[in-house]
Amino acid sequence: MSQTHTAAKQYTKTIAPLSIKGLSVAYQKKPVLRNVSFEVTEGELVGVIGPNGAGKSTMMKAALGLIPSIGGEVLVYGKPYKQQRKMIGYVPQRESVDWDFPTNALDVVLMGRYGHLGWFRRPSAKDKALALECLNKVGMADFAGRQISQLSGGQQQRVFLARALAQDAKLYFMDEPFAGVDAATEKAIITLLQELKLQGKTVIVVHHDLATVQDYFDSVLLLNVELQAFGPTAQTFTQEQLQRTYGGRLAFLDRSHTPPSIVGGKGE
Amino acid sequence: METIWSMLADPNMQWIFLGCTLLGLSSGVIGCFSYLRKQSLMGDTLAHAALPGICIAFMLTGVKSIGIFLLGAGAAGIIATFGIGYITRNSRLKQDAAMGIVLSGFFGLGIVLLTLIQHGDYGNQAGLDKFLFGQAASMIASDVITMTIVCVSLITVCTLLFKQFKIISFDPGFARGIGYPVAFLEQLLMFLIVVAVVAGIQAVGVVLVAALLITPAVSARYWTDRLGLMVILSGLFGATSGAVGTWISASVSNLPTGPVTVLAATLLFCISVLFGPQRGLVAKRLLRQRVKQSFYRDNEQHIEGSVKKEAAI
Amino acid sequence: MSDFWILLTGALVASCCGVLGVFLVLRKMAMIGDAISHSVMPGIVIAFLLSGSRDSLLMMFAALVFGLLTTFLIQMFQQSGIQSDASIGVVFTALFAIGVVLVSLYARQVHLDQDAILYGEIAYVHWNIFELGGINLGPKAVWLLGVTLFIIAAVISLFYKQFKLCAFDPALAAAIGIPVALFHYLLMGLVSMATVSSFESVGAILVVGLLIIPASTAYLLTDRLGLMIALSVAVGIASTFIGYGTAVMLDASIAGCMVCAASLLFVIAFLFSPSNGVIIKKLRIRKLA
Questions:
Q1: What is the 3-state secondary structure (H, E, C) of C188-219?
Q2: Which portions of chain B are predicted below pLDDT 70?
Q3: Residue A219 forms beta bridges with which residues?
């Protein structure tokens, strides 16, 4: 970003793409998410990190209104999320979909345009061209006509990402996009995220692989039912914070060089 | 409306009453296991699939006895179960579609055979179609004796193999790991369901027999988290429904036992849904209030706590 | 001539059910379709009792009410924590039981017997004529089915993309802002209408066969949704033709034969479908070996 751009950003009061206050979700008696509050700035790549059952997916789903919450406020660019659906892009977990559905890759990406079409309009030729271009961006243009059950896990994930691109949103929620994908797909995904950032879009990603957090994300949000920490990766992704989030279940092999990894049992 | 005692004074009614109560009891018991294995609708599928089996058994032997019908229905039930599994394993169709196909396909075949029987001259065929809606009122002593033997055997097997059925319902992979013959046990359970279904069809008919397997079990779930207690309660609810159903239908003319029994079971279900401790609607509403209040209290404490911390610093 | 009307009725039933059945199968809601086809029965009986005649509009309305009620109750129980299959079982058996009680108690007033509910009587369909201004416009059942088919076709094509997305990825649909629940009720409402329109011809209980079996057959034959719908309708119509022919030959239940024909076509597709057939797949493996 040029110097003038950065300076301009400092002077204009920008509305946060996402502002969450006091979000809580409970399942019967058990609190799954308690009083989570944070604000994201535009153009940030945020990684949401935490142990299993920490509520990472839950937070994303509650923020989008897909599951009921006990309390809290979710504002997208200053307005309630229900009014801002066109600005939001969502990449759910791969398991949430039936990959035996009779449809091809292009059609799936085209479904990303439905939010812009309203109730009665059909996808136009322009929409189809856009969908094809999105497939191209994730390197799947050759698979446009392929039945989705014939795609590998990594290819399916890329189709999902292409669909998110087609949604043409300003704020993206991605639930474990890196889970179970091959190295080439992983590279494709991270390239895509960087590109989104350059376009000024904001991306929030539920992530599970601690080894890659420092390379991929500007900020991290450490979550374990409650918000443990949120801030720039360099300052927030520290041993102390991680120990707190994971409850002492981390092992550090070599503090200076190797990133921390999750191991059963107490850390050193 | 007759009192229950005056009804029981009639020896005919005694048999019917006993039969229906026992039926409710055993269906309730076995229904718990199919509910836990998420196969509640399997009873419905097996009931529909039993029809062609019964018809073929009749066509082959010309005899109208429940023993013969049990064999026919049992064979059909086994083929049906196998068919559902085969379709699910070897195509992109999921279990619900496989069940629907088998259910309606077999039933369609059964209806065709039924009409063939009615138009042919098999003598003796009057009343075969009573199987469709059940005719508990036409149960005679020998029927009831057969039913008693069937029900008692069902309950005995479930009691003896309770531990095994429990574990294959909860975690079949683990059961295999510790050496249980899981496939055999699963087939046995399926066979017991077929038996309960065939016994039930006589009393309440093809469409409604599924209710005897499902509704008491679900009702029992609302009262306890322990499987043993759930099975007992379910049997009790089933037996009560059978008894009440028989009593009411005996008192009102033209009213078959089947639907009344099902409605009695449904009433017990509604009561359970409303008033079950912990899971009932009333209990849950109270719980939700408490959780919300404790959340807000905790938040205030958190805020107080952090305010105090800041003040200290 | 009566053959023509019977076949036309059958074809219309197959078309209505074929279209809707595709969405039921894809949404894994085949058994809810089964439940609705049973639980509209009390609605039909109540309509008879209220109107004293087979007034189609009232029947349609009553069926819609009961169909939507069924959907609502199943949804309610599922959300309160009961497994989906048990929810379905409890609701439809209770409603069907109510229906049977009503029929038993008021059978004489209603001129309705249990057999008719079971498998309808398509052979007599052409006797019940629809007259407008004294002109014979053909059997009432045909008109009812025709109107139902028109409504189904209109609703599905108008909201095609919503139905498609809700079936494929309800999470994204909700995130985009599509009212998933509305389309669920809409679909089940259409199923209720199809059931009651078909009730006179194939009976409420066999309609489920025409809902699920042709759609499943089509699912095995193609990878494209649009084609799946077309094939489902085609297979359904073929089943009605083959079924009727067989029934005439054997002097057996027409509706039963139609469902059996559908099952036969399903088995053929299951074994020999070029893309999914079990035998075809085995032959392919053998060729590679």
A1: HHHHHHHHHHHHHHHHHHHHHHHHHHHHHHHH
A2: 1-4, 7, 121-139, 299-313
A3: A46, A232
Check residues C25 and B293 and name the one with the higher pLDDT: C25
pTM (2 d.p.) = 0.83
Same domain membership, residue A257 and residue A205: no
Picking from A21, A34, A37, A97 by the largest number of B CB atoms within 10 A of its own CB, the best residue to mutate is A34
In contact, B225 and B283? CB cutoff 8 Å: no
Window 143-202 of B, Cβ < 8 Å to C: none
The span from the CA of A56 to the CA of B283, in Å, is: 29
Q: What does the angle CA B267 – CA B269 – CA B272 come to, to the nearest 5 degrees?
A: 115
How far apart are alpha carbons A97 and A108 in whole angstroms? 11
Residues of B in contact with C278 (CB under 8 A): 90-91
Q: Computed over its alpha carbons, how large is the radius of gyration of chain A?
A: 19
Which residue from C165, C223, C169 is spatially nearest to A146, judged by alpha carbons?
C223
**Shared domain check, A126 and A83:** yes
| Distance from C-alpha of A120 to C-alpha of A139, rounded to nearest angstrom | 31
Residue C263 has pLDDT above 80, yes or no: yes
Are residue A254 and residue A208 in the same domain, yes or no? no
Task: Tell whether A201 and A105 lie within a shared domain.
Answer: yes
Q: Is the model's pLDDT at C29 over the cut of 90? A: yes
Residue C73, pLDDT above cutoff 60:
yes
DSSP C81: T
Q: Which chains touch C (3 or more CB pairs under 8 A)?
A: A, B
CA-nearest of C255, A53, C80 to B221 is C80
Q: Please answer yes or no on whether B291 and A70 come within 8 Å at the CB atom.
A: yes
Domains defined for chain C, CATH in brackets: 2-203 (1.10.3470.10)
Count of the separate structural domains present in chain A: 2
Rounded to an integer, what distance in angstroms lies between the CA atom of residue B24 and that of residue B235?
7
Calpha distance C97→B205 (Å, rounded):
11
The backbone region for A152, taken as left when phi is positive above 0, alpha when psi lies in -120 to 50, beta otherwise, is beta
Task: For residue range C95-139, list pLDDT tens digits in order.
Answer: 999 988 888 887 665 555 555 555 555 555 555 555 555 555 567
Average pLDDT over residues A24-44: 87
Q: How far is residue A36's CA from residue C22's CA, in Å, rounded to a whole number?
A: 42
The average pLDDT across C196-209 equals 80
